[in-house]
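User: quick one, sequence for these tokens?
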């Protein structure tokens, strides 16, 4: 697909829970991990092909209404996502709701390659990942977009803080800790996608093995390669005669490492 995707916004509205949140659940405490996590949206885009008469003029409206109804019911169960941040220690579950947007994609689903450009995929997102709305406004945003062929991508952006279990496992700090810094939206950023075959990863693991780490994991081996290449590139530039400071971060699943077992389907980390 040549050029950038063009998406036309049609509507935006707030969807509230189908039932009010009980008073005893109105204040949701964040865990220590939630407090230090960067406040940003975690996005997911799900693509659906045309099904039957999904390109019928009235079908899009019916699907949108079905999604709105489902979202309203879901917010009753996952009530923190209909609330707002009160401070760095809690979420006020005030039923303010989540945002639902409808948009039109000016192309066909078949125009999207199987391995699309990451920057093109960001076009589907209704809110920038690093948007300040993550701090001051909604915790959950859903967008239903429609291709000219009748196909539909559903975009979900969520603040993955409410974990529902870990405030007792990782008690919050008092006073609350400030989140870790994250590059602001006006910084120049690049997104790249690397594909490694199983044989290449096996070769990387063998090459990375040493006295300190005899059996490196796949993540460790690939991270080592990317970090090594990054450092070679960075070494060619300096800031006021000094090497540029660099930082690497990983999202890690901590569920299986806690003493108190955490459900695999709990929200957040």
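Assistant:
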């Amino acid at each position: 697909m040549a050029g950038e995707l063009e998406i036309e916004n049609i509507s935006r509205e707030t969807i509230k829970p189908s039932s009010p949140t009980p008073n005893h659940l109105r204040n949701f405490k964040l865990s220590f991990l939630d407090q230090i996590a960067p406040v940003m949206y975690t996005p997911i885009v799900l693509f659906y092909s045309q099904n039957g008469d999904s390109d019928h003029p009235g079908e899009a409206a019916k699907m949108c209404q079905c999604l709105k109804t489902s979202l309203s019911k879901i917010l009753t169960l996952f009530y923190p996502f209909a609330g707002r941040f009160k401070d760095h220690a809690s979420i006020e579950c005030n039923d303010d709701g989540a945002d639902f947007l409808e948009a039109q994609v000016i192309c066909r689903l078949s125009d999207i390659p199987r391995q699309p450009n990451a920057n093109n995929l960001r076009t589907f997102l209704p809110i920038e990942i690093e948007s300040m709305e993550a701090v001051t406004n909604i915790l959950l945003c859903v967008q239903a977009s429609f291709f000219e062929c009748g196909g539909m991508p559903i975009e979900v952006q969520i603040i993955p803080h409410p974990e529902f279990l870990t405030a007792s496992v990782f008690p919050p700090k008092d006073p609350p800790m400030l989140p870790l810094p994250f590059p602001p939206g006006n910084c120049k950023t690049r997104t790249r996608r690397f594909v490694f075959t199983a044989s290449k990863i096996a070769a990387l693991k063998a090459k990375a093995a040493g006295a300190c780490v005899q059996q490196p994991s796949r993540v460790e081996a690939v991270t080592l390669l990317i970090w090594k290449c990054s450092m070679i590139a960075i070494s060619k530039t300096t800031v006021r005669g000094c090497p540029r400071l660099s930082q690497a971060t990983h999202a890690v699943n901590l569920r299986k490492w806690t003493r108190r077992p955490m459900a695999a389907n709990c929200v957040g980390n």
